[in-house]
Structure formats: structure tokens, C-alpha cells
Amino acid sequence: MRTSTSRVVFDTNVFVSGLLFRDSVPGQAIKSAVVQATVVATDATVAELISVLLQPKLDKYASRVTRQAMLDRVLPLLTMVSVAQIVQACRDPKDDKFLEAAVNGSADVIVSGDKDLLVLDPYAGIAIVTPVAYLEHARNTTTERPR
Questions:
Q1: Which of 27, 53, 117, 131 would be a feasible disulfide site paired with 112, CB 3.0-4.6 Å?
Q2: End-to-end CA gap in the chain
Q3: In angstroms, how far is CA 127 from the centroid of its own chain?
Q4: Domains recognised in the chain with CATH numbers
Q5: Which of 40, 41, 29, 31 is nearest to 5 (CA)?
């Protein structure tokens, strides 16, 4: 994973956890990526993020208005890419959209807690790591001195 020019894809669950719980490891990973990398998404990954984040079952964590405000803040930070190359590699076909985002967006890493994605690490030269691993790498990279 390159940090300063790295391109990152977050799966929906990591994004939702990170937005709802900003001080959590997923939240810290998202903050780090927004500052140090380019966060890549597709129409399909954004549609799922919006759909999941606005579900009524999340009202107990934050109001719908607050969750909409989270989306309003995060969506402009995403670099949208078109899907020209279809991917069908994950044992859970619903997760192929993250592989597509990574492949089509020339991503270096996918950040996920989903075993269906993690088992593919690496996929087409793209690292697939947990939020903890991503955050550790990001912290180590920022503490290194340039030579």
C-alpha cells in the first residue's frame, strides 16, 4: 500500500461503522484515508452506502438528519469511477462491487471486515485488509522520514 498517492476502497460496513462511530478504528481509518489517500467509489458502492446508512434501524445510533449530514460531508470527498471491467470473483456476488471499484479505480487497497473479501487478499495486485491493518500501515507510513 502506498500512502501519499494510494487509492482506497472502503466496503459499506466499514464506511457505516466509521461514520457512525468516528473514534472507532473504522472511523480513524476513514479519516486517515481522506487525508492521505484518494477514496475511490462507484455508483453501486455509493448507492449501497446511502441505502444502508439511511435505514431506520440505525436511528438508535444517530438521527436520519444526522446521517444525511454525514453523507453530505463524505460524498464530495469520494473519487467516482466508472465500471468498465466487470468482476465476478467473490463467493458473495454482492461484494463484487468493491472489487470492481478497486480494479476500475486503480486502487491499491480495499478496506473491509468481510471475510468473503478478505479471503481474496490480494486480488489482482490489490491488497484487501482490515481497518486495523490499514490504520497501522497508515500510521507507520506517516511516521517514516523521507530519505
A1: 117
A2: 18
A3: 12
A4: 7-143 (3.40.50.1010)
A5: 40
For 98-128, the pLDDT digits (tens) are 999 999 999 999 999 999 999 999 999 999 9
C-alpha cell at 92: 458473495
Residue 110 contacts residue 130 (beta carbons within 8 Å): no
Residue 138 pLDDT > 90 = no
The set of residues, in sequence order, having a beta carbon less than 8 Å from that of 63 and lying 6+ positions away, is none
Query: CA–CA separation, 80 vs 66, rounded Å?
Result: 23
Per the structure block, which three cell numbers stand in for 86? 466487470
Residue with cell 473479501: 117
d(CA 50, CA 42): 12
Residue closest to 15 by CA, chosen among 66, 62, 38, 49: 49
